[in-house]
Amino acid sequence: MNGALTHFIEVLLGTMLDVLPIAAILFGFQFLVLRRPLKNPREVLIGLLMVLVGLTLFLEGLDLALFPLGELMAAQLTSPELLDIGSESLQAEWHHYFWVYLFAASIGFSTTIAEPSLIAVAIKANQVSGGAITQWGLRIAVAIGVALGIALGSYRIISGTPLHWYIMTGYVVVMLQTLLAPRSIIALAYDSGGVTTSTVTVPLVAALGLGLSSNIPGRNPMLDGFGLIAFASLFPIMSVMAYAQLSEWRSRKRSQ
Amino acid sequence: MRLIKHFAASLFNSLRDLAPIVIVIGFFQLVVLQQPIPNLGGLLIGSLLVVLGLTLFVQGLNLALFPLGEGMAWDFARKGSLPWLLLFAFALGFGTTVAEPALLKIAEEAAVIAANGGMITQSAESQAAYSDGLRYTVAISVGFAIVLGVLRILKGWPVQYLIIGGYLGVVVMTALAPAEIIGIAYDSGGVTTSTITVPLVTALGVGLASSIKGRNPMTDGFGLIAFASLTPMIFVMGYGMLL
Known about the structure:
The complex is a heterodimer of chains A (about 260) and B (about 240). Chain A has about 260 residues and is mainly α. Chain A has helices at about 1-35, 40-75, 80-85, 100-115, 115-130, 135-160, 165-180, 185-195, 200-215, 220-225, 230-255. Chain B is an all-alpha fold and about 240 residues long. Chain B is about 85% helix and about 0% strand. Chain B contains ten helices and no strands. At the A-B interface, helix 1, helix 2, helix 4, helix 5 and helix 7 of A face helix 1, helix 2, helix 3, helix 4 and helix 6 of B.
């Protein structure tokens, strides 16, 4: 129990060190440059404290429960025995990797749903759009994008094809969609690419990339292990624009 | 009483947010790998902490981070000083990125790769210098991104032109940069935006767009984070070319 407490304090201090420069910038500009008092100083302080403690508990809980198990599972699912990589055939058939793809997609989806920064953006988007964009609509659209992205990223590592082909193709699709999608969604869609990959998703996805690239013959974990995060930030842009296109199309159909 | 009810409701929401991960991990562990769940007690306590932490975080967002970001945007608009606003934008981007733990990790890994690839010498000093250089490159690029994004909101430039310009930058740099740096560069775009930065920057953008006449918070307010995840890719590939 004592060890758990010291660990908790360590994580709390770590979070505080992360927050300190941000707080210094915010309050420095607020009081020295803007020279305006805060509107609700007590509420803001309580709120900041809640963010600090909340984030600490969140990270601590992930470390305690989900990360060790998730990382272990990523390693087990990509182990040579489970992948059935025989000694004669260096390269396993694609269907041997069925569980890997399913794991990649479902871990991408589920970690995105729990991602705190995506929750924040969804709350704001819901407010700003006057309710036209629902929190769950946006979050599920982003999560589907991450799921597809991670699964395709795993395929890239398994097949050993170059990363930039996929990313460039993705860029072309994003540009085409930008021309067609409703204007109001575009900025939000681009943003959702950046928010998906933080606290929850990155460690588990990194473990998956490392497991795949170190167990598949001919892959170098140093070179091929990277890139999954890039997939996870590109695909939500497409899925969010698709979500907006779909709902626009549906409302147009209804009004006819 | 109302407070308790409110808290219970948001606790329930967090529980729902976490449920998919628990289901996925449970399914793969029990059905696919067919192994018992190790350390069930730790898993339960950990999940409880996650749910509690997420609940507190979302409450704190609405109490502190959103009002702070939006309030400062309005105050800057009222003050009307562009240099101070841009300096603030840069400081926010740079300051929140330079100490980001995920970035520290990726920079260290990148230094090892560079040393193995013969781009720098194997010594610990040159690796530390390389990873520090990479870290500052990313932080400067994020500061630059927020400045550019704020300028865009003020001027009302359409977001897609800048993003497409950025994509072209990535494409050109990919053709020119050494192969070892490309994977790291692409990933560095994703790790820069932390859980505290995102709500602040989003509120700042939406606040600025609502405080300026003729700007729409929906089309103009978002987009800052998109820039912050695009510029590091270009800058990091540039860093790889210089060394």
